[in-house]
Each structure stands twice: as structure tokens, then as C-alpha cells.
Amino acid sequence: MIRFEAVSKSFAGDAAVDRLDLTIEAGEFTVLIGRSGSGKTTTLKMINRLIEHDGGRILFGGKNIREFRPEALRRRMGYAIQSHGLFPHWTVEQNIGTVPSLLGWTKARIRERTHELLELLHLPADAFAARYPHQLSGGQQQRVGVARALAADPDVLLMDEPFGALDPVTRLALQAELTRIHRLSGKTIVMVTHDIDEALRLGSRIVLLDRGHLVQQGSPASLLAAPANDFVRDFIGRSDIGIRLLGLGVVRDRARPGETTGGDPLPASATLREALSAFVTRQVRTLPVVDAKGEPAGVLHFADLLGTTG
Ligand SMILES: Nc1ncnc2c1ncn2[C@@H]1O[C@H](COP(=O)(O)OP(=O)(O)OP(=O)(O)O)[C@@H](O)[C@H]1O
Ligand SMILES: [Mg+2]
Predict the structure, then answer these.
(1) N or C: which end of the chain has fewer CB within 10 A?
(2) Which residue minimizes the CA distance to atom 19 of ligand 1?
């Protein structure tokens, strides 16, 4: 769907992105990670031509992006920028409705869509639709930025640290919401973060950049199981790799069905990392598991955390 072929970009002679080859399949959730200044934002902005690349080529749906008018490209790609970038003199509703109005939607349809998105992002429309950006907290502005990116239901979402300014609880809730949107819609998402746990939680594919170079790419499990070099190992947190691997597994897959035991149950959807924490804090070796309806779903044994597949 999106393909980088030896793409480069320099600013004043310094390469921000250096001969990058990258293929993003339709429906994939790609996360770009790397340290500050590694070229993540530059890579993202080259996709919708907010930054023009100066070497190689970028294809969208098989066609060189230079053959699209930039506005046409941007209408097909929702974009949430690192610092929300809302129009200060427009209300929240007008901000979210930017692309829909360009596309000629009726007022009623824009209003309906805006309100639906505000609810989705935990901002009640009654309280927020008529406000101006300066009347919102940083995290609320970010959420409006995400709603604006989603507004016209684009096939591609480009998101630059969309949850950077949020507290951990809201952040987790919105990560879950984004995962749900991705599952239901099959959208192609490219997201930038420098939070490795966020990358592992959300990405179906992770792309690690360093000084404009691609260091390693692959599924979360492949990155954790086989880091290509010391840089990757350091980046994913050498001493926490085991814990993070547990974070990719789910209780459901390790519970022994049919068994029962006492105690406060774990949801079958919890990660094995959460289960480990429960074993340690409660000082037990077995924990009962319940499904989404609260029905017993077997027992998780501490020893089974090791599993057979890691
Ligand atoms: N408009 C610009 N003019 C000059 N240099 C730039 C410009 N934009 C980016 N750069 C440089 O290009 C490099 C990559 O920047 P980029 O914004 O892509 O990094 P990043 O990975 O998104 O970093 P961060 O995590 O801090 O957002 C940096 O060295 C930066 O200083
Ligand atoms: Mg950036």
C-alpha cells in the first residue's frame, strides 16, 4: 500500500532519513520508533508530502506520490500531528469537521460524525463541541487532533505521538480504542512513538530507526525474541525483554481449562505480564481465570507462564 524505495531527506546537508526501504501493507498497524531526532516525524510527513523527499521514491497504492496533488493525498490520509495543530480560531466541532467540509458533507452529517467521535475519545460533545482549543487541556487537544484525523474515515491514518500528553490511564484507554478501531476497520495505520511498550502493545509491525537508518523491523515478538544488535537490545530494554515478551501473551492461551481454584479471578484477556504481577503481589502459585462474561475459564499456574513457545 505504501512503499519507500531508497528514500532520503536532508536538511541543510544533514540526512534526516537515509536511503530508507520500507513496505507498509494495507491493513497493517506499523509503529515507527526511535530516539529523538532519529527521523520518525520526517518519515511520516513524507508520506502525505508535508515534507518532500529528495531521493528515492514513495509509492501509494502502486503510484508515485508525486503524481497525486498533495491535497488529494491528504484527504485520503488522516493525520494527527505531534503537537495537535488545531486551528485556534475554530471550535472543536469545526476543527474535527475540517476534511468532511472540504469533501462537501452536509452540516447535519458533519455534526453527527463530530459528536460520535467526541464520545469515542471520551470527550462528551455537550461539554466540548463548542469550545476553542485554548479552552482545552493538552491531552484534550490531542484527542481532538485524533478525532480530526479519523473524521472522514480515511483508509490511512498517520499519527505522530498521538498520546504523548496523556496520563497513563487515559493513554491505555485510548490505545485500546485505537486497537479496536484498527481491528474493526482494517485501516492502515502508521504511528510514531518513542514508547517501546506502546509500540509493542499496538503495532503489528515495528520499525526501529536510528539516525535516519532502519535498524530493524518485524513483529513485536520477532523484535523481542531476536534483536538484531546491541542498539536494538538497549532500545527494547535489555533487562525487561522477558517481561515484555510476557506482555505479548494472553492468560486465555495458558490457562488450564476445567480446573477451579479460589481467589480473586484474572480476566482471560489479561496479559501474562499482568498475571505475573498478580502472582507476585498475591504470593500465590495458581489463579482462577474468568471469561468476558465472568464465567470460570480455568486456572493459570505460575509454572505455565514459561509455556512452551515463550
Ligand atoms: N525543518 C527542518 N529543518 C532542519 N532540520 C530538521 C527539520 N526537521 C527535522 N530536522 C532534523 O532532522 C532530524 C530528524 O528529525 P525528526 O523530526 O524526523 O525526528 P523525530 O524522530 O521525529 O524526533 P522526536 O522524537 O524528537 O520527535 C533531526 O536531526 C532534526 O533536527
Ligand atoms: Mg517527531
Answers:
(1) C
(2) 37
Amino acid identity of residue 85, one-letter, is: G
Residue nearest to atom 5 of ligand 1 (CA): 11
Domains and CATH numbers, the chain: 2-239 (3.40.50.300), 249-305 (3.90.1280.20)
What's the whole-model pTM score?
Answer: 0.88
Q: Could you give phi then psi for residue 224, rounded to 5 degrees?
A: -70, -40
From 20, 38, 45, 196, give the residue whose CB has the most ligand 1 atoms within 8 Å, as the site to mutate.
38
CA-CA distances (angstroms) from residue 191 to 24, 47, 207, 266, 302?
Answer: 12, 12, 10, 31, 35
**What confidence tens digit (pLDDT) does each residue in 160-177 have?**
999 887 888 888 888 988
Over the stretch 57-81, which tens digit does the pLDDT of each residue have? 999 999 999 999 998 898 899 999 8
User: Which amino acid residue places its CA nearest to atom 28 of ligand 1?
Assistant: 37
